[in-house]
Amino acid sequence: MNQEPRASQGNLRRTAGRQLIYLGLASLVGFGSLMWALASLSEGVAGSALDAIAGSVTLALSEEPPQLDSSRATDTVSGQILGHVMEGLLRYDEFNRIVPGVAERWEIGATKATFWLRDDAFWSDGSRITAHDFVFAWQTALDPQTASEYAFILYPIKNAEAINNGQLDTAALGVTALNDKTLLVRLERPVAYFNSLLVFPTYFPIKQSFYEKRQGRYGADASELLYNGPFVIEKWVHGSQLRMVRNSHYWDRNRIRLNVIDYAYITSDVNATLNLFKDGKIAIAGLNSENLDDALQRRWKLERFNEGCVGYISFNHRSGRLTRNRHLRKAMQLAMDTNELVYKVVAMPGNLPGVSFFPVWLQGVERRFRQEFPAPETQVDITQARFYLAQAKKELGLDEWRPLTFLTGDRATTNKISEYLQQEFKEKLGLDIAIDRQIFKQRLAKMSSGDFDMVLAGWCPDYADPLTFGDLFASWNKNNRGEYKNPELDQWVRIAQNSLEPHTRMNAFSKIQKIIHLEAVILPTYETGSVYVRDPRLKGVVKRAVGMDSDYSNAYIDG
Amino acid sequence: MANSRTNKHAYVRYAVIRLIQGAITVWLIATATFFAMHNVPGDPLMDEKAVSPEIRKNLQAKYGLDRPLLEQYGIYLSNMIRGDFGISYAQENRSVNDIIREHFPVSAILGVLSIVFAALGGILFGALTAINRNRLPDIVIMFLVIMGISVPSFVFAALGQMTLVNVNAFLGVSILPVAGWGSVSHMIMPSLILGLGTMAFLTRLMRSSMLEIDNADYLRTAISKGLPPTRIFLRHQLRNAILPVITVLGPSIAAITTGGFVVELVFAIPGLGRYFVQAVQQSDYTVIMGTTVFYGAFLVFMVIVVDLLYGLVDPRVRLD
Amino acid sequence: MEASFSFERTETIARAVTTTRPSLTYWQDAWRRFKANPRSLISLYIIVTIGLFTLVGPWVWTINPMLQDLDQISVPPGADRRARVVEPHVRWAITETPWTTSTTQLAVIGEATTQAVRLAWNPVAGASGYRVYRDIAEPNSPDALGLPLTDIVNAKITGFEDRLDLKPRTYFYSVVALSSKGFELKEHATLAVEVTRVITVNEAIARGLSELDESSLIGETVYLDFHPLGTDYLGRDMLARLMHGARVSLFIGVVAPFIYVLIGILYGSIAGFVAGRWDQLLMRFADFVVALPFLLFMILFKIIFNTEPGESGIFAMLLAMILLSWPATARLVRGQILQIREEAYIGASRLLGAGSMYLILRHMIPNTMGVILVTLTFAVPGAIFTEAFLSFIGMGVAPPNPSWGSMCNEGIKTMLTAPHELVFPAVFISLTVLVFNLLGDGLRDALDTRMRSD
To answer: Tens digits of per-residue pLDDT, A379-389?
Structure first.
């Protein structure tokens, strides 16, 4: 008899079930081998957070540096990497003092500065660093063809601005290599803070012959860059890894104690970074107000850091804008409770309520600038605010307030702040605020064209002098996107720019601080800070408000 | 056998025609994207710090933005035909070709894995639920499917990563890495998470497609003919039910490549999805164009492949 | 011959008609079977309930979803709402005169409230400044004292006022002296501080929490506003936000898929039906649309529709979704139609003189109903997620308008500390998706012609 089972609903299902299990197992095996095959195509595996024997530390980057051409670098991530693999004439030490870098000694006067380069400063290809490398780098950055965004930072040098604007040839730059080891810089005007400019990436040297051989790809890859800093980039897998190893040609190599700094992860997701830290994969992770309690429950040692930037609401002062009216701005100034904003809404330790556009860490004549010249305080006063508002309404000849356009970016904190302020101004002043949330470039485009009433902005220092904040609202400053114009303020900026005398300069800054407050040119929201967690075995990490943010060049692993 | 040869001939002819049509489609995509992009406000040359008008002029000249739009379009097309997508605006020293070459494979690996995972899982679970209709496995799997589709991918990605952290901490060893890219172990979690939604979709599709076939005449014929159940199941039920699943695979690849952004961000994966979203946010014209045209061409090609496969699997479909 | 024309009406036929069951149309039959399925009915009821929640809800629960209750930020449902009324906060002017006492190293000055905690400590010899920490549990090691609140760079200042995000709970404050180079010295003092919840008198009056007047209100205990589902990161009522968010999410989630699936069905069935050259042309156009970059066109539509600041931008989003999402359905339906058109009954129907439209509407679409409904039910979460994804990258519905997707997106950040901010919107999305799926199942069973014999 034929025992082949006949298909019925019941045994059809059983057979089908069995077949499915076979198929399932087969596909599991198939899936596994496919994955294995694909894995052989990719590369890059990272170790644990710290390896004391190998002297290596693994970290995460929030984003990838666009490129590492020092003449063009603009962002903080590039600044951080460049700070490790390059060195300028001067550098910051672990106590944030300016110390010799490639230059052994220097003299800075009112009209010129001279730098004597050390004998043992070499490029990573073994060749000597010469004064010509600086001349070439600075000329390149100023060349209008390079179109460097940070060329302005070289403007104190003679003819720099004219070259950058295409009026003079790059050869006219006031920088001369007297010989291979002596660099003479002629200055356009006396610059009180010139030494703190020299640590900026735009001032780093570039070797001409190497640069020209790259044909426009300088700094695009690990092999497309010549190094002179404590580290060299050994491997750069775009979007995923940037691995630096100790530079054997670096003159001060005995100072360096880490062998490897491995940025093995690139993600801007804060939770992902924290998860990597929890898993022991990275040595430092930033925290935010949302995951703070989780971090506390894990009993980690937390650290706080003043980032040095100032967040503010910038008003549009162009004619025809309601925000051009001083009383309207004053009303908003009096209604805004920055304490509540910082302590309850942003709720992140390290942030300080905005009082002045000049942050607390800036150095004055002897003490901190804000200790010597305390900022005028604003007490929330709704009655007075409403009075100003009524005045503004009269002056503007309005029957009814039009909604004010509040341009913002797309970051998470930005949302919180703008939504909070929108409701606050509505409740306290009855003002309608229309939030215009835009992605990065669209926001910039609208800022430049003046298509806003208020914009949530931020300003970070480029060098350690109050002028980096002080000249922002000068009428000629292109970053003065609200187009605020005030001859009195301009005059104080000129004094601060041209004087070498600390008292005169600080006094000028205090006048600027006062004008910004009295005229409510902008409304400072908060000074940015951050809290992070660090593997306690990693020591000697330096965080700075100016210059490279996290400096691992003095770091070491303890235990 | 003359019939089979004409069939083969027709098939090749069909394939060639489809490829030509595909090329036209890609050209249309490039054109539409080009003009759409140039109409979106935002200037790729603008950055946090303002630059002088002279420098702006130089930059515009460098990227050819000072020419009339139509001329830019012409230059762009001719470069594109030569396979040159230009230099990125945001990563000034990197070409778009480099970016695609380096990051597309990563996205492709992730995408292929999750599609394979989704398709296999979808077909298996779909078939399983269909043959056990309204019984326990059906109810359990369908409940999971609902879970799978009703939670957004960024929630899954975050939860998945958190689970890994806790499992690793609990076991004391790192069984699977929390993030990063490079080895097999890095790929498992992201591809599972990326494929989850599609798998749920395919499971349901497969289930409903199986159930429809349950009542098909040819199945009844096969059963009444007394064919062995294995043969009925594999040759008649499963094979016919897979057809609609294959149709959606092509577009699903599109869904997975865009959804990939979140997974790539959370798991720190250097895929093209991150570069594309970043490029859109930064108005990086050349990268937007390059990736769009590349993805467009890739997609169109995938659709053609799927259609050709369809023709092979289902002989009833006429190739006109 | 005459006789042949005379027909006689017979009784039997009439009787035969009366004995047959009433003839049911296709739709009547479908409705009958739909009603017989309890799962479909329940899902229908839930959908109606969600609809009422969305449309009628805001009329019943009239809390403004934008209103910020900054005294209750990220509060879970059922939290203690009692608060004591106090005077408005006045900044503590800390002078350089050191606070000294022999008994304790560190002490609270005045009362510790959610408004402020004022600390003072004895100066430490050799210190250049102090660092103040705050922890949520008793520190067990001098290396982990909790959250660093501030660095005081002046050794003469031995007081600090903490106002950062104070919750009614016990905090452990520690003060560490700093060396001249800014390193922490060994000495530290820790103090447990019980913080009580307070509300300022003007807030209490502004919110109408009590009938009393200003002077007699101070010191009284009032109940803060009631938030049945808790509050979000700005103290806004979750229930109200869920109701208002439903408008955006359901509008996007239901309207967009309905329209684009409908377009997809028509487009796909026409393409599948006409076949040949026209089919090719139509499908190549679909391929073209599929490959267009969604993000870019999303921004473009926003501009074309001139979404003014402050507007939600929901119509631009809807349109972008409809215009860019139909091809998937179209391809699916076309694939099905291509299969069906080869079936014998289509040929038979055609032979009987059926027109194209009749064939499409009567035979082809009903026969693809199963696949179509699956697509539709999946399109609902798909659309809700697309909106959420756009929020994720900052291109979603303009703030402060809530949507379930953006609420989920915000909630994910506080997943560990305030899970209710993620759970509620996620549950609403899941529930919506679930009922649409069950409904889809029910409809499929009811509408599928081939299931009629069951």
So the answer is: 889 999 999 99
Which residues in chain A are contacts of C233 at CB distance < 8 A? 416
Query: Cβ A347–C164 below 8 Å, yes or no?
Result: yes
Answer with the residue of higher pLDDT: C357 or A267: A267
Residue A307, CA distances (Å) to A51, A459, A530 in order: 28, 11, 7
Q: Which of C144, C194, C205, C206 is nearest to C167 (CA)?
A: C194
Q: How many CB pairs under 8 A join B and C?
A: 165
Instruction: Tell me if B292 and C296 make a contact (CB, 8 A cut-off).
Output: yes
C88 is a domain residue: no
**Contact with chain B for residue C21, Cβ under 8 A:** no
The B residues from 9 to 38 touching A (CB cutoff 8 Å) are: none
- What is the CATH number that goes with domain A83-208? 3.90.76.10
Q: Where are the domains of chain B?
A: 1-73+292-320, 104-282
A:C CB pairs within 8 Å: 120
Provide the pLDDT for residue A556: 92
Which positions 152-171 of B are in contact with C (Cβ < 8 Å)? 152-155, 158-159, 162
CATH placement of domain B104-282: 1.10.3720.10
Let me know whether C242 and C178 are in one domain. no
Residue C201 pLDDT greater than 80, yes or no: yes
In this prediction, what percent of chain A has a pLDDT beyond 70?
A: 95
| Range A307-529: architecture per CATH | Roll (3.10)
Other C-beta atoms closer than 10 Å to the C-beta of A40 total 9
Give the nearest chain A residue to C206 (CA atoms). Answer: A427
Number of domains in chain C: 2
Which pLDDT tens digit goes with each residue over A125-154? Answer: 999 999 999 999 999 999 988 888 888 899
pLDDT, tens digit, 9 for 90 and up, residues A436-455: 888 788 888 888 888 899 99
Name the nearest CA neighbour of A76 among A86, A61, A87. A61
Q: In b/e form, how buried is each residue of C86-122, taking b as 16+ CB within 10 angstroms?
A: beeeeeeebeeeebeeeeeebbbeeebbbbbbbbbbb
Mean pLDDT, to the nearest integer, of A238-251?
91
Neighbours of chain A (3+ CB pairs under 8 A): B, C
Compute the average pLDDT of residues C9-37: 65
Strands of the sheet containing C159-162, edge to edge, are C106-109, C117-121, C159-162
pLDDT tens for residues C117-165? 998 888 888 888 889 999 998 888 888 888 998 888 888 888 888 988 8
Exposure b/e, B79-97, CB count within 10 A at least 16 = b: ebeeeebbbbbbbbbbbbe
Residue C306 has pLDDT above 70, yes or no: no
The residue among A38, A212, A290, A300 with the most chain B CBs within 10 A of its CB, best to mutate, is A38
pLDDT in tens, B216-244: 777 777 777 777 777 777 777 777 777 77
* DSSP tag of A228: -
Neighbours of chain B (3+ CB pairs under 8 A): A, C
Q: What are the structure tokens assigned to C28, written together? A: 């009547």
d(CA B270, CA A68) in angstroms, rounded, equals 18
Test A343 with C66 for CB contact under 8 angstroms.
no
Among A43-47, A331-335, C1-5, name the one with the lowest average pLDDT.
C1-5
Contact A291 C413 (CB under 8 A): yes
Residues of C within 8 A of B21 (CB-CB) are 280, 284
> What mean pLDDT, rounded, does chain A reach?
88
Contacts of A411 in chain B (CB under 8 A): none
> Per the CB < 8 Å rule, is A291 touching C417?
yes
**C289 interfacial to chain B (CB closer than 8 Å):** no
Q: How far apart are CA B271 and CA B294, in angstroms?
A: 14
Residues of B in contact with C279 (CB under 8 A): 320
